Amino acid sequence: MESKIIQGKSIREWKKQYPLMNKIISTEEVFWTNSKYGKFEDAIKKVSLTEEDVKDAEERLKRFAPYIAKVFPETQKTNGIIESPVVKIPNMQRKIEEMFNKEVLGELLLKCDSHLAISGSIKARGGIYEVLKHAEDLAIENNMLTIEEDYSILDSDKFRKFFSKNSIAVGSTGNLGLSIGIMSAQLGFKVYVHMSADAKQWKKDLLRSKGVTVVEYASDYSKAVEEGRKQAEADPNMYFVDDENSTNLFLGYAVAAYRLKKQLEEINVVVDEEHPLFVYLPCGVGGGPGGVAFGLKLVFKDNVHCFFAEPTHSPCMLIGLMTDMHDKVCVQDFGIDNITAADGLAVGRASGFVGKTLKNLISGAYTAKDEKLYVLLSTLIDSENIYLEPSALAGIPGCIELFKDEAGKKYIENNNLKDKMKNASHIAWATGGSMVPKDVMETYYKKGKELSSHKI
Ligand SMILES: *Cc1c(COP(=O)(O)O)cnc(C)c1O
């Protein structure tokens, strides 16, 4: 294994160049800070996407709001805008401080994308946005719609019949399939969701109940995506939602940042030079957390510090960023198995587009063990009565590691944050959970309680 050659170097050489690789390969938890992290004003110049692109996505979501409110009545209270609450979780903060024997300076908050309407995960941002954009493009091209119209007219037989001549395909570990499937089926599209082996049975059942064609694979996410892509290439009326490369998905996620700014103002959470914001984002292929991080950097610039969180068995973004190899390498190359209970994060090869876009904007990345995710899952239920799926807990330990790990301490020092940490806010981005069936959640909870009695 040590002599296996990956991108021109043996594993031994990779380890020598990046000492952290030793721990990563033995699936130990690590906290990595990005030496290429730069000042916002410099870093943003190297990115082709702009604030205007995000604003354009925000406007599009506003145009669709009357339609969304009509077909998904649960969104009526937010007038058809799909948004989640951000809440302070002081009890959980105290619990984890005790559990890991480390004080977290500042205040811990939770961004509850777990409770986003329609599909109960962060995918209700990018995934739904991309389907809406595609529907709008088709309708406008065919002179059936103008952007001045009330989009609730899309809820009609005329439009459903029109969309039914078109189909949409996507590859997913589960949640992206849910959001694309539910939204596309509602509009009238034919939908094919290619599911990896990680995908939970209840997600497949739910999709089938909505008339979605679910194709199952015995292998991982990359295979499901590849098959979806192939299927769409063979059919001119089929649109492929490309989780690995889509700027539309990315922009749909980025809109979250502008809305978060308003939400924080409403609860008197200040973000400025004296009040830094730290955000910890569970990361799979990278589109969701990458898009959100991109938006956050546009909004808060150098006052926000974003970290990706991955399972110890699927650290694809971390390896891609650290080695600058992005999608040229996968975790399996290094003998890491990509098997994790965090199904939303079970991705072996990160998006090259996202890694390169965030290269100088992301502060770092860390990994967490599955056992820890379960323990945090039951602890969050006991302390705050909030129910998340395992993937979504990955954002929680970031604030501990920042203060505990030597690399985290150095990051605070190097960025002149030491005196400001008592004023800091830490947001763990809770990426999914509200749609998990009760009995499944019960087994997660029990597992967490059981593991809590051991050392984690
Ligand atoms: C998809 C997903 C993520 C990560 O999003 P990516 O775009 O794959 O990086 C995180 N948590 C949950 C619950 C997800 O479903």
UniProtKB/TrEMBL annotation:
<comment type="similarity">
    <text>Belongs to the serine/threonine dehydratase family. DsdA subfamily.</text>
</comment>
<dbReference type="GO" id="GO:0036088">
    <property type="term" value="P:D-serine catabolic process"/>
</dbReference>
<dbReference type="GO" id="GO:0009097">
    <property type="term" value="P:isoleucine biosynthetic process"/>
</dbReference>
<dbReference type="GO" id="GO:0008721">
    <property type="term" value="F:D-serine ammonia-lyase activity"/>
</dbReference>
<dbReference type="InterPro" id="IPR011780">
    <property type="entry name" value="D_Ser_am_lyase"/>
</dbReference>
<dbReference type="Pfam" id="PF00291">
    <property type="entry name" value="PALP"/>
</dbReference>
<dbReference type="InterPro" id="IPR001926">
    <property type="entry name" value="TrpB-like_PALP"/>
</dbReference>
<dbReference type="InterPro" id="IPR036052">
    <property type="entry name" value="TrpB-like_PALP_sf"/>
</dbReference>
<dbReference type="GO" id="GO:0030170">
    <property type="term" value="F:pyridoxal phosphate binding"/>
</dbReference>
<feature type="modified residue" description="N6-(pyridoxal phosphate)lysine">
    <location>
        <position position="123"/>
    </location>
</feature>
<dbReference type="InterPro" id="IPR050147">
    <property type="entry name" value="Ser/Thr_Dehydratase"/>
</dbReference>
<protein>
    <recommendedName>
        <fullName>Probable D-serine dehydratase</fullName>
        <ecNumber>4.3.1.18</ecNumber>
    </recommendedName>
</protein>
<keyword id="KW-0663">Pyridoxal phosphate</keyword>
<dbReference type="GO" id="GO:0016836">
    <property type="term" value="F:hydro-lyase activity"/>
</dbReference>
<keyword id="KW-0456">Lyase</keyword>
<feature type="domain" description="Tryptophan synthase beta chain-like PALP">
    <location>
        <begin position="79"/>
        <end position="405"/>
    </location>
</feature>
<dbReference type="InterPro" id="IPR000634">
    <property type="entry name" value="Ser/Thr_deHydtase_PyrdxlP-BS"/>
</dbReference>
